[in-house]
């Protein structure tokens, strides 16, 4: 073939077309990965927050139910309790004892074994004013429940 001969058109893609497609696909993949990662993190945080709220609710329900079941103001009082050399302010309700262990971020119950009633708890406060018992529980996500129980005369 001579210098002036025409080049035949060949089927296929040019290098520029291939590079453009690779660049576009890379951008799409990065955006999709970012969206998936963000959605996944949001889901995990939401699940954790729901778990904390459920812990706060179940602890509050158990404690206030125990207070109502006991019913007698003389069997409900506040007193310090010592566990593993550490002293805690405890709420005594009948045969049960409730206290907050800040090292575990949990509300523990009962005298002997100190089993966890709820974890992921930032604070557990309570007060007794005659027949009025106030219990406040705050989860590590800031969710707070405040419950007041009035005992019968």
TrEMBL record:
The keyword Transmembrane helix applies. SUPFAM superfamilies: Pili subunits (SSF54523). The chain crosses the membrane at residues 12-37. InterPro entries: N_methyl_site (IPR012902), Pilin-like (IPR045584). Pfam families: N_methyl. The keyword Hydrolase does not apply. Keywords: Membrane, Transmembrane, Transmembrane helix. NCBIfam families: IV_pilin_GFxxxE. This is Type II secretion system protein. The lineage of its organism: Bacteria, Bacillati, Bacillota, Clostridia, Thermoanaerobacterales.
């Amino acid at each position: 073939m001579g210098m002036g001969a025409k080049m035949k058109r060949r089927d296929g893609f040019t290098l520029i077309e291939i590079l453009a497609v690779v660049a576009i696909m890379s951008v799409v993949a990065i955006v999709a990965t970012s969206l998936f990662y963000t959605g996944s993190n949001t889901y995990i945080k939401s699940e954790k927050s729901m778990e904390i709220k459920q812990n706060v609710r179940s602890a509050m329900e158990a404690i206030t139910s125990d207070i109502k079941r006991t019913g007698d103001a003389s069997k409900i009082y506040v007193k310090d309790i010592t566990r593993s050399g550490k002293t805690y302010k405890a709420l005594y309700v009948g045969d049960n004892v409730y206290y907050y262990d800040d090292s575990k971020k949990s509300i523990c119950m009962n005298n002997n074994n100190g089993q966890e009633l709820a974890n992921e708890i930032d604070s557990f406060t309570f007060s007794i004013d005659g027949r009025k018992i106030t219990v406040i529980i705050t989860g590590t996500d800031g969710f707070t429940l405040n419950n007041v129980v009035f005992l019968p005369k």
